[in-house]
Amino acid sequence: MDNQVENAIEIAWNPRSEQSLKAQAFDFLNQLRTDASGREACVALFTRTPKCSEVVRLVSLDVVNNAIQTQQLDTTSLNHIKETLLEYVRRTYATGDQAEVDPASLQNKLTQTLTFLFVSLYNQGWESFIDDILGLTSLRNNGTRDNFNGTVLYLRILGSIHDEIADVIISRSTVETKRNTQLKDAMRVRDVAKVAASWEEILNQWRDQNDGVVEMCLKVIGKWVSWIDISLIFQGVLPILFDLAGRIKPGNGEDKVRDAAIDTFTEIVAKKMKPADKIGLIVYLNLGQVISQLISSPALHDLRTTSSYDTDLAEAVAKLVNNTVFDIVKVLEDTQAPIDTREQAEQLIHSFLPLLLRFFADEYDEICSTVIPSLTDLLTFLRKAKPLPTKFAEMLPPVLNAIIQKMRYDETSSWGAEDEQTDEAEFQELRKRLQVLQKSVAAVDEALYVDILSNVIGNTFQNLDQQGGQMDWRDLDLALHEMYLFGELTIPNGGLYAKSQPSSVAAERLIIMMSKMVESGIANFAHPAIQLQYMEIVVRYCSFFENQSRYIQPVLEQFVVLVHYPHIRVRTRSWYLFQRFVKHLRAHVGNVAETVIQSIGDLLPIKAEVPNETADDDMSSDESDHSADAAFNGQLYLFEAIGCISSTTTTPVEKQILYARSIMEPLFSDIERNLGPAKSGDAQAVQQIHHVIMALGTLAHGFSDWTPGNPSTASHAPKPEVSAEFSRAAEAILIALEALKSSFDVRTAARASFTRLMGVLGIGILPSLPRWIDGLLSQSSSKDEMAMFLRLLDQVVFGFKKEIYDVLDSLLTPLLQRVFAGLAEPITGTDDEVQLAELRREYLTFVQIILNNDLASVLVSASNQGFFESLIASVTTLAQTVTSGTGNLAASRLAFSVITRMADLWGGANIATIGPQPASSSTAPSPAFDGFDRFLIERFHPICWVVLREQTFRPATDAQAKQVLNEIAGLEQMIYLKTGDMFIQHLQQEFFPAMGVNGSDFIKSMTTSTDRKGLAGYLQGFLKDSRA
């Protein structure tokens, strides 16, 4: 058997083995896991002399581990494995012969096996486990821990035992938790004191001989201390810990033992205790003094500004500080803690704050981040302490000053360098965390926050006046960044101004800062970060300029310079910010369009580039900012900005037309020049036309963002002369669209421009609507494009409902023909399925918009009567399609809603009432056109029951199906309201008898449920009973 197992393992793990043989080997080994003789063979293979290959021994132990862990073995089998392995480890590890020791991977697997045996047998037969393993650590069995091999294995096993029974991070079952608790209790009684004594002996034996053993021992102590009596380490281990934590290596180099000792202190402090005990522990350990000495050590003090700075040590000490402060704050928050304990905690927090701020201010952001959690906890405590005692208020200035200084770029950073993009991103992420801390300080003491920030920013502007271009850009960037954040204090008061006066003290200070910033000439400081920050601030606080309009002109002048900035990141961002600035202040900028157009005209010529399909898709975000598409998108903001400036109220209409024409004429020429090549398939020419169409639409949007049909913006409607000028743009786009409607990019650009032109053309867009539809819903259009265009038409119908009837009447049938063709296209994949669901939704919404905006008659007009039956068939088909499929239930709900609306509009006056005493008038139904009453009963009513009889329709368990059921109930009640007794008689005499169902309960619920949910509830019960 041994040979069979050995051969199978060798074949399975040999890369040169035949696949068929490998498969047989793996099958054999899988069967082995449940075979007792196979397990015995595996134990023998692992312990055999001479030794098998490493892979055979590793797999053999894995089979044994699996058997122990899955509890396949009885006590006899477990004891046999225990005796065999114990004899093996004594033979291998107790002699001190390094040649016999297993490699690290096998030691790990052996450790795991012995740990599983410990869990199974420590309380049931192997009570001497610790004694047996501890015995390996001594060569002469005289109590000295001088056997290196045995000591290492002993420490490995101790670490593994903790991981298996005491690691709180691992989620465990109730049974496992109970078992582990029993094991820990037994160990505390039987062996923990012995283990703690062994740690002292091992540390004393190896501290000057082998750092690896000492580090392992310290890590084990750090693990076990969370669940053993801490007093066991105070006498012997603690003095050694202090020595190791404070030791200095020659040359102040890296010292893993020292770092491990500090980590052990951190774990000791993290041990769960009562508040008084925790404070007592911190005082007893004299941690403040220990940490202060570590901070003063050469590794953290003398070498701090050098490349030899020991960041691992700094991070270890920072973690200790963080955990200690966390526990102190926890005691301060505990209102049930004894008064003397709280007083001690207050003294400790004052002594630890400078230590915390030392690491918070560290040049390395990883070290700073280590203490942010405890600083956050401290500020949260201070925020809740109302009123804030003076002794705590004194802590805020140094904290806030440290946060502000940490916001500053360090001396080694160089903004915008290609090779520092990752560092830049990480620093900006740190700034976000620091901003949260600043907000916490402001929440504790806003007046202090306002004063300190005002001084920092004010002093920086004063230094700029004195030093000019010689000033460090990092100081200016810090002031501007803080200024950008400062305005958030004004948000709760509704902005900077209230009735033309500053809304708060913070707003008053920010107004002063804004004035000083604009006057300082900081926009001319020769560093891209400063100019970018400047633009961000003037845009963020645009409301300042509404009240201080004298500053608009100089800022505009600075903008037209900055939009030409050589640094691409600043330049493209400036185009967006320029648009934001002028759009917000269009009512205040005055007649400056001519100057602006002349100043930035050189940036307007469009130079399209065909996307490189072979380019690496895995492009960083910053690189994509430099792409041709990103540059063009930025260029569009310039067109919109020109539109905003050219259409201000102070600009005469003839001037507005002149400015629009001056921008559009070159674009028209561009289309004319590229149309021929584009029709011949020139990709660059097609891309150029796409860009020009987008530019025309964006310019129009700048001139007017009026939304037709919105009463609140009715006064924003463009002047007729401006609309007439932009009708030329619409015509140019339509000519390009008609010539290139097979191009997806051209259709996309035209669709985007259509919605923007609508705001400037107004009702003037309606006569050309058929041409837009013909171009945008071409044979090449996808279902997705159709859905998007229907969404646009919803806006048109809603915006021009009084004027659109005639146009809609003429285009409805051809439009719906295109849509039905799209709905009928076969589905070839998941994307198609999603697009079809979207098209169904938009189609039904479009019909609903027509019905809800007094345009229902267009559906049955002379022009569209021939298509009415197809329309009804499509809607009813969608209503009754409730089988599984993307969007089917959503479409069904919408379709039933449309049908109910048709019934309401065309069913005539209500001739029945719904209530406890339902009544049906003797008056005959009076539908809008002959026969529609029978149509309601014979066409609309049956589809409700088609859905109800569908076995997959389960409203009890599906929320969307329940919504459909509500719509069905609403439709049935609407049919009853419009047809009264005619419907009741049909149900009683024809419909339910044909189904073989007694429908009296349905009729009762339908006629008495004043809320359709009542009928829906009945139907849900009916379905449950009928399917039982």
UniProtKB/TrEMBL annotation:
<dbReference type="GO" id="GO:0000049">
    <property type="term" value="F:tRNA binding"/>
</dbReference>
<dbReference type="InterPro" id="IPR040017">
    <property type="entry name" value="XPOT"/>
</dbReference>
<dbReference type="InterPro" id="IPR013598">
    <property type="entry name" value="Exportin-1/Importin-b-like"/>
</dbReference>
<keyword id="KW-0813">Transport</keyword>
<keyword id="KW-0819">tRNA processing</keyword>
<keyword id="KW-0820">tRNA-binding</keyword>
<dbReference type="InterPro" id="IPR011989">
    <property type="entry name" value="ARM-like"/>
</dbReference>
<dbReference type="GO" id="GO:0031267">
    <property type="term" value="F:small GTPase binding"/>
</dbReference>
<dbReference type="GO" id="GO:0005643">
    <property type="term" value="C:nuclear pore"/>
</dbReference>
<comment type="function">
    <text>tRNA nucleus export receptor which facilitates tRNA translocation across the nuclear pore complex. Involved in pre-tRNA splicing, probably by affecting the interaction of pre-tRNA with splicing endonuclease.</text>
</comment>
<dbReference type="GO" id="GO:0008033">
    <property type="term" value="P:tRNA processing"/>
</dbReference>
<keyword id="KW-0963">Cytoplasm</keyword>
<comment type="similarity">
    <text>Belongs to the exportin family.</text>
</comment>
<dbReference type="Pfam" id="PF08389">
    <property type="entry name" value="Xpo1"/>
</dbReference>
<keyword id="KW-0694">RNA-binding</keyword>
<protein>
    <recommendedName>
        <fullName>Exportin-T</fullName>
    </recommendedName>
</protein>
<dbReference type="GO" id="GO:0005737">
    <property type="term" value="C:cytoplasm"/>
</dbReference>
<feature type="domain" description="Exportin-T C-terminal">
    <location>
        <begin position="340"/>
        <end position="1025"/>
    </location>
</feature>
<dbReference type="InterPro" id="IPR016024">
    <property type="entry name" value="ARM-type_fold"/>
</dbReference>
<dbReference type="Pfam" id="PF19282">
    <property type="entry name" value="Exportin-T"/>
</dbReference>
<dbReference type="GO" id="GO:0071528">
    <property type="term" value="P:tRNA re-export from nucleus"/>
</dbReference>
<feature type="domain" description="Exportin-1/Importin-beta-like">
    <location>
        <begin position="105"/>
        <end position="264"/>
    </location>
</feature>
<dbReference type="InterPro" id="IPR045546">
    <property type="entry name" value="Exportin-T_C"/>
</dbReference>
<keyword id="KW-0539">Nucleus</keyword>
<dbReference type="GO" id="GO:0016363">
    <property type="term" value="C:nuclear matrix"/>
</dbReference>
